[in-house]
Amino acid sequence: MKTPGSQSSLHRANLERVVRAVRLAGSLTQAEIARTTGLSAATVSNIVRELKEGGTVEVTPTSAGGRRARSVSLSGDAGIVIGVDFGHTHLRVAVGNLAHQVLAEEAEPLDVDASWVDGFDRAEALVGRLIESIEVSRDKVIGVGLGVPGPIDGESGNLGSTSILPGWAGINPRQELSQRLGVPVYVDNDANLGALGELVWGSGRGVKDLAYIKVASGVGAGLVINGQIYRGPGGTAGEIGHITLDESGPVCRCGNRGCLETFAAARYVLPLLQGSHGPELTMERVVELARGGDPGCRRVITDVGRHVGSAVASLCNLLNPSRVVLGGSLADAGELVLAPIRESVGRYAIPSAARQLSVLTGSLGGRAEVLGALALVLSEMGDSTLLGGFQEPTLLHSVR
What is residue 56's three-state secondary structure? Predict the structure, then answer.
């Protein structure tokens, strides 16, 4: 019988530590595995050899610091994960392997406010189509990450806001998709998944504390503290769009006045320009016109940047992140929006916090959330499935 502290328990724990380190990073050299896990180089070498022989990892030659090294990643045959992202106007699905490689990806228009049943029907169909396109058996699917544009109740798992997705209120998206696909589903809001996507694949790589600010039809933030998404006990951490900027300002959909969202979200900003630029104006078009020199669009984007910067300054004073990554349709404005954000941060944030902060646009664009959904599965899934075939070493003597 395996007992805590026994040789077999220690061996299994070391296997799991190595697999987890590689799973979260995508690939690591053996020296990086040793630093990450705290195991000795000899122990890492033996475990990597065992995992390679068992088909769990792949080892390829590489270089590190000018020296030859060996890069370790999970085997492409170890399983696949799926990311599903519901936006307000789109559905995007991606399929990836455990080595952090995206194997297939597709997006299609979707009015997510219309019908949750139609949304899940189309998600199920698109998942099936992509799995078929890469010619992989469904039993290779380990888990699914699901992103929704609204807050998830931390206890029930239900969508809680009737004002954001009125047709989805009370729905448990994790249970719904899990029943349809027959695999574990991990769910989070779009801002948190955008933060995970940029952290793993984009502008957040290399930092442990960041805020991902998404400005689109609403305004939200995904907060990463010490490398982990911070959700709060109720799952609503990061609702930066409802920081009050003006108590006498416009009434927000949340019921308060003068929230950041009423000064920055597309539904409030576009009417400022539609009288002069036409009723079909979109935020993507505003950004395009601003980059082309349109004075009205440039002014609106500058104002939005200043307002977002005020909220970011408050965030800096509270959490002191090292990086803020701007996502959503506004991010394509580049320095037109980043400069006023930095100006407001410099004016309102504590000087020491402002000096340590870098403000960047996301590098993943509209893919940030679906890649974050893949990253969510890779971070939340257990390692038992990957190590199920490993036998414990035979003990030469019993351990009490």
Answer: coil
